[in-house]
Structure formats: C-alpha cells, structure tokens
Amino acid sequence: VPKKCQKAREHFGTVRTQLESLKTKFPADQYYRFHEHWRFVLQRLVFLAAFVVYLESETLVTREAVAEILGIEADRERGFHLDIEDYLSGVLTLASELARLAVNSVTAGDYSRPLRISTFINELDSGFRLLNLKNDSLRKRYDGLKYDVKKIEEVVYDLSIRGLNKEATGGAGGEK
C-alpha cells in the first residue's frame, strides 16, 4: 500500500501542472461562471487525495491539505480554489469507497481494518450531521452515507457473530 500511495502522489504532480494551465484560461473573477466545467474533476481529485491520505494515515485530509496536494488555493479570495462543496462531495465518495474496502478487507483476511473503517465512517457521519445541508446534490450524496454506514456495520456485525473481531480487537480465541 505505501508504494501505491507514493505512486499516486507522483501522479498529483501532473494534476498540478494541468490545473496550473487551467488557471490561465479564464479571468480569475469568473471562477463560478466556468465552475461546472471542472467541478466533477475536482470532486474526483479530492476523493483520490483523501483516499491516499486515508491509506497512509487513516485520517481525514483537510480541505487545505487537498488544495496543497492539487496546487490550488483553499481560500476563495485568492483565485482558483477548492470549493467547500467540491471538498465535501469528494469526502462522501471516500466514504463509499471505504465501505467497499471494508468488505474486501474481510475477503483478504484483514479483520481489523473494517473495525477501524467503522470508527472513521461513524465520526465522519457525525460531522456531516452537524451541517445544515440544503436539498441539493450534496444533500443527496450525504443521504447515501447512511447506506455506507449500514454496510460497514453489517460487516462488523458479521465479524462479531463469527468471532473474528476478537482477533482484531486484541482478544484471544479468534477462530479463522
């Protein structure tokens, strides 16, 4: 995993170059006029950066750190920037991918990762619940988070029923 993360980080160099070129194609004060042209790409890049950071440290990447990885600004006033909604959408995509990773980890015999993912996703869900989201695309994506939480809870429950989480939590007697 560390080698794959390092390789992914190298590819962000190309992304920075492309975004630097994009910045020159329109007036700085017209960011939102053209925002729809790159919105989806930025959301996907946020997801990729967040996934790499999660795999490296099992933490949530900040918006400022993503902006730095991508070579763009975090603050709106400073020009081409990472919009907060794009950041949040990318983070929600991370949650969906982590739900898949939890299932795949069990298949690969890693019974502790789903427990750690569950803790992370529950904290993420708690954070999103604090937001007052309007009835827009971000709200709809957030509504999908509850299904990711449920999927991960089912994995953790299965591990518990089968006695496999004892090994993951440090207890003795876990059977494979």
How much β-strand is present in the residues? under 5%
Using the 3D structure, state the CATH architecture of the largest domain.
Up-down Bundle
Mean pLDDT: 91
The assigned structural class equals mainly alpha
The biggest beta sheet reads: none
- Number of helical stretches of at least 4 residues: 8
Secondary-structure element string: HHHHHHHH
Find the CATH topology of the largest domain.
Methane Monooxygenase Hydroxylase, Chain G, domain 1
Q: Please tell me what the overall shape is.
A: globular
Helix content bin: 55-70%
Summarize the structure.
Its main location: cytoplasm. The protein is mainly α.
Secondary structure: elements and pairs:
Elements: H1 2-23, H2 31-34, H3 39-57, H4 63-70, H5 84-107, H6 113-129, H7 137-161, H8 165-168
Helix pairs in contact: 1-3, 3-5, 5-6, 5-7, 6-7
Task: Jot down its keywords.
single chain, hydrolase, Methane Monooxygenase Hydroxylase, Chain G, domain 1, DNA-binding, 8 helices, nucleus, mainly alpha, metal ion binding, 176 residues, cytoplasm, 2 domains
Walk me through this protein's architecture.
This is Translin. Belongs to the translin family. This protein has 176 residues and is mostly helical. The chain folds into 2 domains: 1-82, Methane Monooxygenase Hydroxylase, Chain G, domain 1 (Up-down Bundle), CATH 1.20.58; 93-166, Translin, domain 2 (Methane Monooxygenase Hydroxylase, Chain G, domain 1, Up-down Bundle), CATH 1.20.58.200. The chain contains 8 helices and no strands. It has helices at 2-23, 31-34, 39-57, 63-70, 84-107, 113-129, 137-161, 165-168. α3 packs across α5 (84-107) and α6 (113-129) packs antiparallel against α7 (137-161). The longest helix has 25 residues, at 137-161. The protein is globular, with a radius of gyration of 18 Å.
